[in-house]
Amino acid sequence: MNGHSEVSKEEKDTPTQSDYEKKKQTFITRTIWTLVMIAGFFLAMFAGHIYVIGIITAVQIVSFKEVIAIANVPSQAKELPFTRSLNWYFLGSTMYFLYGESVVYYFKHIVLVDRVLLPFATHHRFISFMLYVMGFVLFVGSLKKGHYRFQFKQFAWTHMALYLINVQAHYMVNNTFEGMIWFFLPASLVITNDIFAYICGITFGRTPLIKLSPKKTVEGFVGAWILTIVFGFGMTNVLMRYKYFICPAHDLGANIFTGLHCDPNPVFLPRTYTFRPPLMFHAAPYTFSVAPMQFHILAFASFASSIAPFGGFFASGLKRTFKVKDFGESIPGHGGITDRMDCQFIMGFFAYMYYQSFIAVYRASVGGVLEMAVQGLNGEEQVEVLKGLAKYLVGQGM
After folding, report:
1. What does the alpha-carbon distance between residue 187 and residue 180 come to, in Å, rounded to a whole number?
2. Which of 29, 174, 284, 304 suits 106 as a labelling partner, its CA being 20 to 30 A distant?
3. Sign (positive or negative) of CA dihedral 296, 166, 151, 124
4. Residue 248, exposed/middle/buried by CB under 10 A (0-12, 13-18, 19+)?
């Protein structure tokens, strides 16, 4: 009897040890790849804007691949290989349009004076539209009896993925062009909010927040919100001191060592404010100086804490719908790229819209003047402008 009990005990202990070793290995793998991602992120950011844009491009391509894959039906996909090709065609045409829009907008001073690039710049939207129309015609022509439902589901699913991933990622690219701070700050707020939510949740979390993510708690949600605001104030105060972060990317060859030079956006310059207490307190007015960006960070941190997590909840609902644990296995120990970026896309979209609405300063630029001259004047008028500008410069002794 004793021998039988010892054997039974050993049998029970064996799977426990195996589970422990498995969890330990997963933790080690996850930690290593977390450090690799952090190191790669900072390396790219310090290497220059073009490297950050490269990472954003790679992320959206892999994310698109992962999202498209979970809705795939292998048995039908084998009979319709052209459907997969069309998915990638739509991705390519969409990225051509989005990246072309950014290049034409931010680098007018280059593309509008180049003989080869000028036709592509002036007719970019029409070319992009015709590329999409070709894809649409190819899709209709590929419809096969008995597979209509699957093909139309793939068509709709592809367009949803393009909007939720690629269109929103496009604004992250634009944020990078506007200044590294508009890319790094929103991304870091989402990351730290996720960390704070986890810490607050396991420390004093009690009340479930949402059924889609059972581990999320109200206490973790609120605690992370407060700590994210505090982090945002501190990080903004540091980043504002360096022109490499606050200057637009007019030179894609710039890096942390060469730096950038510009007249800072007024939002980064301290202003003096006077606070007048209510008369009942009989207190003297209090004067203090602070950069307006410190007020704007409240909006950024609040969005990262209250709205951006719903990108993650949406992704959780999507995975539950298709009964998958992760979107893929792109990152060992973490799942797919989409599992790590589900909140980042909507945060980047918000950052761009907020910046353009409340922070951007619109001034005449070399690219803007060239655009008006190239597209709004005929050859004789352009020569006249050139002569007038030359005469002015000579008069100024330049």
Report:
1. 11
2. 304
3. positive
4. middle
Contacts of 33 (CB under 8 A, 6+ apart): 331, 332, 333, 334
CA distance 51 to 57: 10
Q: Give me the sign of the Cα torsion angle 48, 51, 57, 63.
A: negative
d(CA 117, CA 138): 28
Note the pLDDT of residue 17.
53
> Cα–Cα distance between 96 and 85 in angstroms, integer?
16
Spatial separation of the C-alpha atoms in residues 304 and 283, rounded to whole Å: 37
As given in the structure block, the two tokens for residue 169 are 């990622």
Whole-prediction pTM value?
A: 0.84
Residues 6+ apart with CB under 8 A from 45: 51, 52, 180, 184, 256
Two tokens at 179? 């200044």
Structure tokens that stand for 100 in this block: 């072309």
Query: Rounded to whole angstroms, how far apart are CA atoms 314 and 93?
Result: 26
Cα end-to-end distance, the chain, whole Å: 104
Cα 162 to Cα 158: distance, rounded to the nearest angstrom = 6
- Helix boundaries (H) for the chain: 2-47, 49-70, 74-79, 81-106, 108-111, 117-122, 124-142, 148-161, 168-178, 180-204, 218-239, 243-246, 293-306, 309-322, 337-341, 344-354, 366-376, 379-395
What's the pLDDT tens digit per position in 84-133?
Answer: 899 999 999 999 999 999 998 888 878 877 888 888 988 999 999 999 99
| SS3 state of residue 88 | helix
- Position 209: which residue type? L
Q: Count of CB atoms within 10 A of residue 125's CB?
A: 12
Displacement of CA 227 from its chain's centroid (Å):
22
Which phi and psi (to 5°) does residue 254 adopt? -75, 150
Tell me the three state secondary structure of residue 290.
strand
Q: From CA 393, how far away is CA 376, in angstroms rounded?
A: 23
Contact by Cβ (8 Å): 112, 121? yes
The HSE-up count of residue 233 (CA atoms within 13 Å, CB side) is: 8
Phi and psi of 331, rounded to 5°? -120, 110
Q: Let me know: does 353 contact 296? Beta carbons within 8 Å.
A: no
